[in-house]
Amino acid sequence: MYLPAVAGYPALPGALVQAGLAIGDIVHLTEYVTGAGPDLVPARSIALGGHRVPVSRVPVEAVVGRDDPYILGVSAHPGGGTLLAADGDALRVADGIVYLPSVHTTEGDFREQYRCCLDRIAALLDLAGLTPAALTRTIDYTATATRAEYPRCGRPRKEVLGTGPVHPGAAGILVDRPVEPGAQVSLDALAALGPLTAINPGWARYDTLTYKPAVRAGDKIFFSGFGALDPVTQLALHDGDLPAQAEYIYASIETVLAAAGASGTAVTSLIEYVTPGAAADYPRTAELRAKHFPNAAVTSVVCSALLRPEFMLETIPACF
């Protein structure tokens, strides 16, 4: 279960109770932190009370429509799954999903850091007896200043993830405050046990990329991030019109769902990254979102920018 965004660690127990869960059921936490960012280690330690979980830290510009200094993205499963721990790292495996902490480094140039992050993910997966072929989704966080260098991550992805035919879903989000000074890349990932199947409604652009529109693992579907991009012409659409971009994005997601034999009601979570210039208009997308994905828990944050300058919104759905 992916909970609606939680307004900090003091609110975590109540949010879990409302969902019929407890602290021991948490399998992953994402800390979306604004500004300079508070030190969340003490609050996290108090809230978890010794329960170890993988944690991802994501710097953001703001939380959409709220003044909270940070919010939590919470994934939980009754019983908390299985803990795998070594050298201070913690993974959890629950209902066939492998939850990992985010990784980063401060050594090397952009491509070297990206490769280091992928290698670190591979080492973490080894704790579960898996290889990078088990990855179902990656989200990388890089700075606007490195946008021109971003294509350089293609080579290390091919070297570590292989040539397919199955690759994870992927998203790239621009955040101008690094998770640590000197870190040009931060990488978040999910994996799954068992065989994976790529889901592609026939979009040829993905034939040469190291990610797919979506990946199925059993009864679960993991998606890439979706922006208002024509998959045939690769042109960005509806420049300056957030509701139109949102409608296009949601329709694209439903196209992929249809290829998987599913519909929007199957989507259980949406993570939405909104650009600063689009944040004021974001409430106008609420009705569209509810129409397409009525069962989804939504987390909405303001990023620094998106990889295509025309994009105002990137949406990452999941069905599990």
UniProtKB/TrEMBL annotation:
Pfam families: Ribonuc_L-PSP (PF01042). This is Enamine deaminase RidA (YjgF/YER057c/UK114 family). It comes from the Bacteria. PANTHER family: BLR7761 PROTEIN (PTHR43857), YJGH FAMILY PROTEIN (PTHR43857:SF1). Gene3D superfamilies: RutC-like. It comes from Paractinoplanes tereljensis. InterPro entries: RutC-like_sf, YjgF/YER057c/UK114. The lineage of its organism: Bacteria, Bacillati, Actinomycetota, Actinomycetes, Micromonosporales.
